[in-house]
Amino acid sequence: MKTKLPAIAAILALLGLAFTLWPEPKPRGFDLAAFGRLPVLADGRLKPMDSVARNTLLLLQGRQRVSTPDGHSLTPHEWLLTVLFQPGEADTYRMIRIDNADVLSLFNLAPADGDGGVRFAFVQLRPGLAELDRQAQLAEPVDAGERTAFQRAVEELREHLLLYDHLKFSLQAPDSPDFSVLLASAAQLPASRPIFETMDSFSVLRVVPPAPGTAEWRTAGRSLLASAALGLGVDPAVRQYTAMGRAWVAGDPVAFNAVVRDTTAGLNAAFAPVMRKCTLEALFNRAEPFYSSLILYVIAFLCAVVSWLKWPDVLGRTALGLMELAFVLTTVGIVARMWLEGRPPVTNLYSSALFIGWGAVGLCLILERLDRRAVAGAAGSLIGFSTLVIAHHLSLSGDTLEMMRAVLDSNFWLATHVVTVTIGYASTFLAGFLAIIYILRGVLTRSLDQATADSLARMVYGIVCFATFFSFVGTVLGGIWADQSWGRFWGWDPKENGALIIVVWNAVILHARWGGLVRQRGLMALAVFGNIVTAWSWFGTNMLGVGLHSYGFTSAAFYGLLTFVLVQVALIALALLPPGRWRSFRGAAI
Amino acid sequence: MNPPSFKSLLAGLASLRLTVFLLLLSILLIFAATLDQVHLGVWAVQAKYFHSFVVVTRLAGTPFSVPVFPGGYLLGGVLLANLIAAHFTRFRLAWKNCGIWLTHIGLILLLIGEGVSGLMQRDSQMRLDVGQTKHYAESFRDTELAVIDATNPAFDDVVAIPSVWVEEQAPIQHPLLPFTLRATAYYPNAMVRLRSTMTDAPAPVATLGDGAELAVQPAPVTYKPNENNWPTAIIEIRGTDGLIGTVLVSALLVSPETFTYQGRTWQVALRAKRDYFPVAITLQKFTHDVYPGTSIPKDFASTVRVRSDDGREDRQVRIYMNSPLRFAGRAFYQAGYDNNDRTSVLQVVRNPAWTVPYVACGMIALGLAVQFLIHLLGFARRRASAAVAQPNVS
Can you tell me whether residue B138 is helix, strand or coil? Predict the structure, then answer.
């Protein structure tokens, strides 16, 4: 039984993964998955309705599930359909997250009024909207970097409420007469132009595919304005969405599914490549490969750690197998994202987190093959897990497949500079995490024998060499990109400085080692400090809010970074304990 | 006590401890400079931390400045000396060291190249409206005092005086000028206002030109990247027979002050320092695309016509993001836009050492790759021989 553990774990994991691909159930008979695959142009790119629903919910409330006032739980699709076609109903759902107590008091609300203490309904907020606007106007002239936490929270909430409110104008106007009646006769259209104009100016979704011979996706409002002006019939797409809305409101799944089927068939014929991408993206959203990997990394990490104390062979193999599976899964996820975006793997902070985890785990799989002590396996699964958690938090700030700003729009440099420098980050972190294992095992347990210690020291040294090379080459490629696009090789921009500090720090480690200034313990302490240096370059520099690279301002991450730094400092202090205080190899010079 | 011998000095200079110490100091310097960018902006930080021998800080509440840390030139210079000394004393030329040699020579080249760039690089900016032609770019930080003999309508004779003379209020005398100039007041940043619009207008500070109508309001120097400083000065002009008059010059004023002296028409202006080049550049078209339904910039591009003064070049070029024009020893790149997309802003960089980092970094990257591969092969060989010596019994 014991020896079969790796195989059993693998089968269970595969079954779990197969379950994530299982088709979605049809609530009350509505084929919502098919609705979720319909394409729409939003945030400058074509994406499925499914992504609109999920990303908007993540942005507004930090989770995808919505609870209704009567205690039901809605899927993102049900929520989106309600917002689009029954906005009055959607306004009663508590799904707008407010964490800042001062902001909450603008609305005379207390945490007890919210779902989970933080989520509030639009109807609850409506009386305070004028005051929110006034506060936002007061905050506006203040430089973004100098705003207080309250001012930032006000700006953010206002943006979220605008996004939510504008969503209601995508397919009809919230207080307009019944759209299916309104659109029934072409003669009525001109009289409704003000409604269509409002819809066009507010709508964030462009649902109407380009007419033959044109390339522009339009809002329903724009399309209806054209119909009214030219005396043309209503565009089929607008008609279909109106019919979907009517069937949804009437609770008629047969009619709803029929319209969705017709719409899909029409789009499949005319926009096959778009539909392929939207279908894959919806599947990707549902399967959540990164979430599955996250769970696998946790289990692999636990198996690896326990293997140091008990059943080294069986648990070590289980850990390695699960880690390999999670690695394959993240690879599939990253490749799917690359295909959807038509870009190299790293395009923003979110994808850098994915890629750092992926690179570190890949290196660990090689190290584990060279030396099967489940040490690299533990470090790799821990980094894999941590980076996926970071990625999850970054995904809360909106669409992670966002469009590239003009200055970054170069696949060649994204593929070379960004990928190389990210591998440099990944390997510097890996050296640091291996060192953490050395320190914790050495100080707290008796399990670190001389052979394992030497093996860990060799790994850390090798990975530092690797990290030096990749962070140097990556930084230089960044310099060349800067020279090509901005006319200077080096500009002392915060992000550039951060990368340079990583290179110099790795050089310090190597020179200190070569010069005999440090031995194993010192090497480990230096490698842990590498974690601080890398975390600073990755996140800290963006928090300064200055420079050409300040594209991912993440103020909420500040306390996370601070905690991380403090933990690393504590670990370095542990490493500096005299060898006599270590539980492993007492008194030996290390 | 004997003075230390040259050899022991060299050994001390070549020590690895010194290398590690210097590298740590560099990290601290870079980190402090990064943090200070929030307050000073990137240009002031470069001058204070990197293009300097010592970093000086003003003691709070006093006019005294004290050195607090070695600057970029000093640290870079000592690192260079350390590296060169190490190669004279410790390293021998051998195949197993070839990666280190390559890396270190590349590094020496890089440090020298950065030093040269720091001293020689000139950045300026070119604002072009559609249809406009210019022969020059303008510095965004440095100003110059231009004294122009505009008597002949066909051409101007320009004497450009570096603004340091104005800042130090030194007397200015030039063989082409029949008078001397001297600043009696200088403000690194100031607003200029019409005296008639002010309720409590001060007495006029200038006697010549429009300056008599204007008043100067000094302002604190700004380091924000999106704000400008407007240097302003009062200049006293003296001929052989005494004071001719005083003029108010400011980078804020668009047109120069004019006066006549001994039958010739003169103009004086404090203007952005110009970098003239032997090429005429005409902006033919500017485009600015965004992603549909968003304000995220997708592309901005200037189509320009480039004509060299010697008549050998006359062509059309498209300058856009990640694709600059290299011409006449300068790089012209698309930096921004203004005026509802009717004005294109090009950044113009002149750096004679721009190719050095390419060569240096190529050498370093190759050196690192070679050295680490040598390590890796050695490790693999030891592992293989260990495996032969201790055959796996299980």
Answer: strand
**Residues of A whose CB is below 8 A from B354:** 483, 489
User: Would you state the structure tokens that stand for residue A365, as one six-digit string?
Assistant: 């799989």
DSSP H helical segments within B183-316, as ranges?
none
> Is some CB atom of chain A closer than 8 A to the CB atom of B21?
no
Looking at the complex, report in whole angstroms how far the Cα of residue A252 sits from the nearest Cα belonging to chain B. 33
Contacts of A480 in chain B (CB under 8 A): 357-358, 361
User: Which tokens in the block code for residue B259?
Assistant: 């006066």
DSSP state of A416: I
Backbone φ and ψ for A569, nearest 5 degrees, come out as -60, -40
Tell me the residues of chain A between 86 and 115 that have a Cβ less than 8 Å away from chain B: none
Tens place of pLDDT per residue across chain A (590 aa) = 677 888 888 888 888 888 888 887 888 889 999 999 999 998 888 999 999 999 999 999 988 889 888 888 899 999 999 999 999 999 999 999 998 888 898 898 888 888 888 899 999 999 999 999 999 998 888 776 677 778 888 998 999 999 999 999 999 888 777 787 888 777 778 888 888 899 998 988 999 999 888 888 999 999 988 888 887 788 889 999 999 999 999 999 999 999 999 999 999 999 999 999 999 999 999 888 999 999 999 999 999 888 888 888 888 889 899 999 999 999 999 999 999 988 888 888 889 999 999 999 999 998 888 888 888 888 999 999 999 988 888 888 778 887 777 667 677 777 888 889 999 999 999 999 999 999 999 999 888 888 889 989 999 999 999 999 999 999 988 888 888 777 778 888 888 899 999 999 999 999 999 888 998 999 999 999 999 999 999 888 877 755 544 444 445 677 888 889 999 999 999 999 888 888 887 656 55
Task: Give the separation between CA A219 and CA A168, rounded to whole angstroms.
Answer: 12
Q: A375, A452 in Cβ contact below 8 A? A: yes
* B125 inside 8 A of chain A by CB: no
Contact A346, A418 (CB under 8 A): yes
Mutation choice for B interface testing from A170, A207, A488 by most B CBs within 10 A: A488
Q: Minimal CA–CA distance to A380: which of A351, A360, A356, A354?
A: A360
Tokens 């059993």 belong to which residue? Answer: A8
CA distances from A507 to A9, A246, A363, A514 (A): 42, 66, 20, 10
Q: For chain A, give the number of residues.
A: 590
Give the integer Cα–Cα distance in Å for B185 and B145: 14
Residue type, B347: Q
Q: Does B123 touch chain A (CB under 8 A)?
A: yes
What kind and span of H or E run contains A425?
helix A419-444
Nearest CB to A501: which of B31, B297, B364? B31
> Could you report the predicted ipTM of this complex, rounded to two decimals?
0.81
Residue A387 CA: distances (Å) to CA of A289, A354, A426, A437? 14, 6, 10, 18
Contacts of A541 in chain B (CB under 8 A): 34
Cα–Cα distance, A471 to A509 (Å, whole number): 14
Mutate to test the interface with A, among B90, B299, B322, B330 (most CBs of A within 10 A): B322
Closest CA to A571 of A520, A537, A533, A529: A529
- A299 half-sphere exposure, CB direction, 13 A CA radius: 21
Q: Judge residue A366's burial from the number of C-beta atoms within 10 Å of its C-beta, 0-12 exposed, 13-18 middle, 19 or more buried.
A: exposed
Burial letters A384-399, b for 16+ CB under 10 A, else e: bbbbbebbbebbbbeb
Per the CB < 8 A criterion, the answer to whether A199 and A228 are in contact is no
Q: Structure pTM?
A: 0.82
Domain boundaries, chain A: 26-273, 404-581
Which residue does chain B place closest to A483, by CA atoms? B354
- Across the interface, whether the CB atoms of A409 and B299 are under 8 A apart is answered yes
